[in-house]
Amino acid sequence: MEYLYPLIFEPIIKEKIWGGKNLNKILNKPRMSDHDGESWELSCVPDNVSVLRNGPLAGKTLTELIEQFRGDLVGEAVYEEHGSIFPLLIKFIDAQQDLSIQVHPDDELAKNRHNSFGKTEMWYVIDSEPDASIIVGFSEPLNVSQYLDYVENNKLMSILNRERVQPHDVFFIPAGRVHTIGKGLIIAEIQQTSDVTYRIHDFDRVDTKGSKRELHNDLAIEAIDFTIPDSYKTIYKRSSSEQVIGTSNYFTTKRRLLNKSTTLNFDHSSCTVLMCIEGSYDVSYFDELPTISKGDTVLVPSCIEELRLKPKSNGILLEIKIPY
Questions:
Q1: Are the C-beta atoms of residues 225 and 121 closer than 8 Å to each other?
Q2: In the chain, how many domains are there?
Q3: How much is the pTM?
């Protein structure tokens, strides 16, 4: 009889014009090219569905596992709403160049235009080069007409908010917020299951064929939220052993500092995703998952009540749940 256990999937490596080699060097992902930009750790995006790597169920896709185990895997309420579609896309990103300036639509707009979820996301900075930065939101209030004037006169960069970043910084990016990841950053990204992106500026780059990538300014204008929050960066107590660092209707993310043996207790409302940001751990759960290390992402089924972790060195885990 087949049973559930903590699940690790084969990473889906995405070559990007802005990618590099650090997914392999720092996070131990398979190297596919000199420009590996993303490692999709958990995905139900069409044609990019994750395949299980560990244990007796290895070789099955995430979709097949959800269809087989239903609420025991993802949680009853999650399964009732989403069926066999896993509602989160979990990634690691290596940016060796600036990504394009972009924005994502919300649920309503994405549904109407693309029959897709919208894309709310959050970033956790794993590593950064000196003076690395991101762009998130606007630096001053403006309306649609003013924004279009900046775009048409190629002055968009002058009104965008740039933030210097360092390891362990956190940014929440709701759908509609203009943003980009700057060069020299390795980031863990948690987002809705969506691959809909509107590119609004790409620094006049060309691909290997000498062609500029397509911009989507006409589509983007209806998606952009011009609201300016009090702070773009998430403020949290970094010395705390356990702290929520991201909340939304789509996911909640808790950061855990682990320096001693710890039992993680889970409720049955949804599955739990663990992203290992630092360190490595012995795991007490039969033989299917003896250790997890930096760069590993583990899907803990909702039927599992606890995991016992013994750190081999001080470490950091991100613990992600689907709120129900």
A1: no
A2: 2
A3: 0.95
Q: What's the distance, Cα to Cα, between the start and end of the chain in Å?
A: 29
Residue 131 maps to a domain: yes
Which residue has better confidence, 44 or 213? Answer: 44
* pLDDT in the model for residue 286: 62
User: For residue 214, what are the β-bridge partners?
Assistant: none
CA 127 from chain centre, in angstroms, equals 15
| Active centre residues (catalytic) | 199
**Backbone torsions φ then ψ of 29, nearest 5 degrees:** -85, 155
Residue for token pair 């590593």:
127
Q: Are both 209 and 258 inside the same structural domain?
A: no
Provide the CB-side half-sphere exposure for 209 (13 A, CA): 3
Pairing of strands 44-45, 36-42: unpaired
Sign of CA dihedral 47, 192, 278, 37: positive
Instruction: Give me the mean pLDDT over the 303-314 stretch.
Output: 90
List the Cα angle 178/179/181 in 5-degree steps.
170
**147 and 267 belong to one structural domain:** no
At residue 314, the pLDDT reads: 87
Q: Domain check: are 181 and 250 in the same one?
A: no
What distance separates the 2 farthest-apart alpha carbons in the chain? 65
Instruction: Determine the Cα–Cα distance for residues 213 and 201; give it in Å rounded to an integer.
Output: 9
Amino acid at 202: D
Domain range spanning residue 118?
Answer: 12-220
- Per-residue model confidence as pLDDT tens digits over 126-172: 999 999 999 999 999 999 999 999 999 999 999 999 999 999 999 99
pLDDT at 285: 72
Taking the C-alpha atoms of residue 138 and residue 152, their distance in angstroms, rounded to an integer, is 17
**What's the token pair of residue 307?**
């995991």
Instruction: Find the mean pLDDT for residues 48-68.
Output: 96
For residue 138, which of 238, 226, 213 has the smallest C-alpha distance?
A: 226
3-state class (DSSP) for residue 89: strand
Cβ burial, residue 152 (10 Å; 0-12/13-18/19+): exposed
